[in-house]
Automatic annotation (TrEMBL):
<feature type="domain" description="Lactate/malate dehydrogenase N-terminal">
    <location>
        <begin position="33"/>
        <end position="173"/>
    </location>
</feature>
<dbReference type="InterPro" id="IPR001236">
    <property type="entry name" value="Lactate/malate_DH_N"/>
</dbReference>
<keyword id="KW-0816">Tricarboxylic acid cycle</keyword>
<dbReference type="GO" id="GO:0030060">
    <property type="term" value="F:L-malate dehydrogenase (NAD+) activity"/>
</dbReference>
<feature type="binding site">
    <location>
        <position position="113"/>
    </location>
    <ligand>
        <name>substrate</name>
    </ligand>
</feature>
<keyword id="KW-0520">NAD</keyword>
<dbReference type="GO" id="GO:0006089">
    <property type="term" value="P:lactate metabolic process"/>
</dbReference>
<feature type="active site" description="Proton acceptor">
    <location>
        <position position="206"/>
    </location>
</feature>
<feature type="binding site">
    <location>
        <position position="182"/>
    </location>
    <ligand>
        <name>substrate</name>
    </ligand>
</feature>
<keyword id="KW-0560">Oxidoreductase</keyword>
<feature type="binding site">
    <location>
        <begin position="38"/>
        <end position="43"/>
    </location>
    <ligand>
        <name>NAD(+)</name>
    </ligand>
</feature>
<dbReference type="Pfam" id="PF00056">
    <property type="entry name" value="Ldh_1_N"/>
</dbReference>
<dbReference type="InterPro" id="IPR036291">
    <property type="entry name" value="NAD(P)-bd_dom_sf"/>
</dbReference>
<comment type="similarity">
    <text>Belongs to the LDH/MDH superfamily. MDH type 3 family.</text>
</comment>
<dbReference type="InterPro" id="IPR001557">
    <property type="entry name" value="L-lactate/malate_DH"/>
</dbReference>
<feature type="domain" description="Lactate/malate dehydrogenase C-terminal">
    <location>
        <begin position="178"/>
        <end position="330"/>
    </location>
</feature>
<dbReference type="InterPro" id="IPR015955">
    <property type="entry name" value="Lactate_DH/Glyco_Ohase_4_C"/>
</dbReference>
Length: 340
């Protein structure tokens, strides 16, 4: 099998219709279930987006101490559906049994960053949380596509896969879509063009060593380097790398609108078999020269999960930056491994 190709998963591409009454009568639509682990800022925005897009029914899960909070947020969102006209069941819960059989599991559980903290500072706090989530997912959602948002993403998604044993095509980390969106916005503002026409790609770990790939960045087919000066591009790259920290410094907590939209874009591509090419943290097994590591690379997400890893032809400078980013990711991943 060629590098970057994945074996199909038997259940990921299940048909969207099923028989009713033992095969009697017309087929009925099979509503999808999206379980959101963590009912905080990102979880709430995820639920709102999934409901508005009518991608499926939502389970908003949190710890027992926050059961009523999750239920209240779910009820508020369902009432919002009566105003906006979307049909989606949204249930708040602290029981994993309510998540059973989920088609998609999006994990936001954990402590968000505070001013002055790096993502790596969260390892000790969020590692036991991700392990608890992995155990629940393994028991109740064995066939779900899993998208991890909890920081530090690259290490947390690695631990989730290690602990569950789920195949790599069904366990992803959300970072590249968000980082690329930030890069895309900053480029559009500098070039004074529509953000819709900018195509940007950010690879590597979700940290200060991430790799905005200028050689793959275009504005409606025109290289960004033709429209923006080198010094301005360097400033944009630096701002992109610090994009999350900039928001933490302003709000006192992590971003949630753009991260939620990024995860939903990934989930939607899976649920609707859109086969979008998106940057995501995926388990590497030789691609780009790295093994046993989760790192952001371009992937095709379809009904089978991650269906292909795309290896870009990077410049020598970009390869050097990716190596530096991989070293940082490896360092934090080794901390997680040592704590196993």
């Amino acid at each position: 099998m060629a590098p970057g190709e994945f074996l199909p998963h038997a259940l990921a591409g299940a048909p969207l219709v099923s028989g009713r009454g033992g095969g009697k009568g017309p087929p009925m639509a099979n509503r999808k279930k999206i379980a959101l682990i963590g009912a905080g800022n990102i979880g709430g925005e995820l639920a709102a987006l999934v409901a508005r897009k009518e991608l499926g029914d939502v389970v908003l899960f949190d710890i027992p101490q926050k059961t009523d909070f999750a239920k209240g947020k779910a009820l508020d969102l369902e009432q919002n559906g009566a105003v906006l006209g979307y049909d989606a069941s949204i249930k708040g819960t602290s029981s994993w049994a309510d998540c059973a059989g989920a088609d998609v599991l999006i994990v936001t559980a954990g402590i968000p960053r505070k001013p002055g903290q790096s993502r790596d500072d969260l390892v000790a706090t969020n590692l036991p949380i991700i392990r608890s989530v992995a155990d629940g997912a393994k028991e109740h959602c064995p066939d779900a596509l899993v998208i991890v948002i909890s920081n530090p993403i690259d290490a947390m998604v690695y631990e989730f896969k290690r602990r569950t044993g789920f195949p790599r095509e069904r366990v992803l980390g959300m970072a590249g879509v968000l980082d690329s969106a930030r890069f895309q916005l900053f480029l559009a503002r500098e070039a004074n063009v529509s953000v819709k026409d900018v195509r940007a790609m950010v690879l590597g770990g979700h940290g200060d060593d991430m790799v905005p790939v200028l050689s793959a960045c275009t504005i409606n087919g025109v290289r960004a380097t033709e429209l923006i000066s080198k010094d301005k591009l360097e400033a944009i790259v630096a701002r992109t790398r610090k994009g999350g920290g900039e928001i933490v410094g302003l709000m006192g907590t992590s971003a949630y609108y753009a991260p939620a939209s990024s995860a939903v874009a990934m989930a939607e591509s899976f649920l609707l078999d859109q086969k979008r090419l998106l940057p995501a943290a995926v388990y590497l097994d030789g691609e780009y020269g790295y093994k046993d590591l989760y790192m952001g690379v371009p992937v095709v997400i379809g009904g089978k999960g991650v269906e292909k890893i795309v290896e870009l032809p990077l410049t020598a400078e970009e390869k050097e930056m990716l190596a530096k980013s991989a070293k940082s990711v490896q360092g934090i991943t080794d901390v997680v491994k040592a704590a196993s």
